[in-house]
Amino acid sequence: MNNNELPDPDENGIIRILPISFFADKKQLLRKFNINPHIYDFFQEHIVRPFIHKANYNRHYEILKSELTMLKNKNILDIACGTGSIVTYLDPSNCYTGLDISYKLLKNASKRIKSRKFKEKSLIQGKAENLPYKNNSFDFICCNTALHMIPDYKKAIQEIPRVLDTGGSFLGCCPVTGIDNKFDKIWKKVVQKRKMIHSLSEDDIKSICEISGLKYKQIGTNGGLLYFRSEK
Ligand SMILES: C[S@@+](CC[C@H](N)C(=O)[O-])C[C@H]1O[C@@H](n2cnc3c(N)ncnc32)[C@H](O)[C@@H]1O
Q1: pLDDT tens string 95-129
Q2: Looking at the domain covering 21-76+129-231, what would its CATH class be?
Q3: How confident is the model over 32-58, as pLDDT tens digits?
Q4: Is residue 81 lining ligand 1, measured as CB closer than 6 Å?
Q5: Rounded to whole angstroms, how far apart are CA atoms 152 and 48?
């Protein structure tokens, strides 16, 4: 695979590349993501999707499933993978890499991928804005409901075409304003209260993808969630 210049994984199977200095001024940010993973998954399913995203949880995974189950023998990067929720839909012939800044969530992803017989698998504690991979390393990249939480989301999107191989695809899902009135109302309040969350529109995402050299195509919506595929 492409991580031969990275350190060895630790006892939890996680490769840690963030320098100690990264943690010094990021206490608030990391506290936010260092949530108990079980609470986190429950919270996503029963609170965030229905009441904040105004989305149907089953439809969310149906859309992702329809895009993911057909992938075979691909080198896949899951950006901001959290607890690794998408691995359930991936064929074992693929190589899976999950990257996230939260060690706690990665630990749960580690348990989740243990039982999956991927051709190769790795988990890395790193930043989406600075992917530790060479150009053209992956055939497929996924970022499930995370762009709005990544501090420099523009840089994170710009990194994708660099590490994506020519002909490869980026599958994204992100809450956006302008597609569901009920979501827009609640999102305005969420963004006012939680300064670290971005309020993005479909045009914001489309234009950064296109500026970065990715072809953008919407594949569906679900409440305030936008699903899109971008090809290099
Ligand atoms: C709403 S969660 C989505 C997690 C997962 N993709 C899922 O669908 O369950 C957002 C994730 O973004 C991660 N995150 C936030 N900022 C990040 C960054 N700069 N680089 C990598 N991951 C980041 C958080 O740790 C968290 O796991």
Answers
A1: 999 999 988 889 999 999 998 999 999 999 999 99
A2: alpha beta
A3: 556 666 677 788 888 899 999 999 989
A4: yes
A5: 22
